[in-house]
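Schema walkthrough. Field components (list of strings):
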Amino acid sequence: MSNFTAAEPNAPLVVVEADPSVRSRLAMQLGERAIPLADLNGVEERYLDSPLLVVLGPSCSRSPGMSGAEALLAHRPDVGAILIADDLSTDLFQRAIRIGVRDVLGAPVDTGQLNEAVRRVDQTLYSALSGARSMGMPMGEDEPAEGGRVITVFSTKGGAGKSVLATNLGVILSQRSDKPVALVDADLQFGDIAVMLKLAPQHTIVDAVSSFERLDVGFLESLLATHQPSGLKVLPAPLEPAFADQIGADQMHHIIGLLRSFCSYVVVDTPAYFNEVVLGLIEDSDDVLLVAGMDIPNIKNVKIGLQTLRLLNTPMQKIHLILNRANSKVKLEVSEVERTLQVKADALIPSDIVVPQSVNKGTPVVLDAPRSAIAKSLEQLADRFAPATAGKKKGWR
Ligand SMILES: Nc1ncnc2c1ncn2[C@@H]1O[C@H](COP(=O)(O)OP(=O)(O)O)[C@@H](O)[C@H]1O
Ligand SMILES: [Mg+2]
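Field assembly_structure (string):
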């Protein structure tokens, strides 16, 4: 057994950067543990017998720095490298990951983010030594015996409120859960989760699939953006619609599997149509929240959606109908909708001006207007998965 504890990472840490002023700034950000070096010469000889953390400064992403790192990482799996890059292109990211760099961060790097990356890589080095999976989760008894619950939010109509629902549900579940909660933006062409949560993500799902053969829990974790107020872990959609094709159903299936291995809940937002990726997600899900707005085109589309799901032999007990804007004065009764769809609504979400207001602020309505009726209805929906207080409410578990 290793006597390593998560609170005391202790691999030696070197920071390598040719530019003296950039080097000393990075060293300062990393604290007194960091040993500043101009290049990688002699590093291997000096740290022969112990794992080593290497922070590669921006100058290293230009050759010959990169080839030096490649040579070192090729035969030293106990060296964990983090690259800071001026230009955080997908191309550079792929190159770095291929040579064995564990994480890539954009310059200028935020001190908190940098130290968090160092801590994460440090842990994987020690878990590798003690025989656990090399880039896996921090070892320990809190590794889940079975996976977390996958909840996909779907609708056959754009603008129905899928993304609003997915972000708010993710935030509430994250607040209630001790383990991480992930939100995946699987609206691959026009995903707007990052905008709705005011995140400026460093990575997207494209980075996960472009290094697919190396994708494991530790690596995937390093790609997730954290929504600070709630702790929710977000895997954003591609930045450009053209990248959507790069993500196939098999890849999505693998990503969801990795996420559920360390998260208590994986919430997935989707586009408003069926394709292979969406069908795979529905199959992988424990619950599908089918969102319908309160107008005839919405109801018509949801009816077709339900028929499609039945044809595909989707177990109906995992489909939950959510009626959004259910209080709107649109001369359509909930009972009428239920009768048309031949399904009872599991949740009614009222219409409220605070929703678009919160969307425009980039703050989910449950945080922005926690006392509003809509926030309460979203909390009630979340109760079905993770009750805020023990007892009372009937769950879907
Ligand atoms: N209950 C609601 N009350 C008021 N506005 C809502 C409500 N739900 C969604 N909206 C608004 O509708 C728009 C579309 O919602 P969104 O979640 O982006 O739909 P989808 O993801 O299904 O396309 C958003 O701008 C949001 O502000
Ligand atoms: Mg959406």
